[in-house]
Amino acid sequence: MNCPKCGGEFKVRKSARAGCTDSRKYLAEKAAPTVKWYVGLDYMVRQRKCLSCEYSQETVEVLLKDCREMIIEIANKGIPKDF
User: Is 45 helix (H, G, I), strand (E, B) or coil?
Assistant: First the structure.
């Protein structure tokens, strides 16, 4: 991935699976409000950092099929109340 601030290389620094109970649980929980309502515990969160400007941000991975279905459900029914 490219850094959204400078276009540099955006590398993975840490990863956490949903439902993990180790020291990276905080990272997995950051994405829970956004995706858990639809995918349950089937997602991965990655903390990325730019090698050039050191900007840091999290990304979330879900199956493409689930991503498409989430978008369709939000378009049809609106944003879930627990979002």
Answer: strand
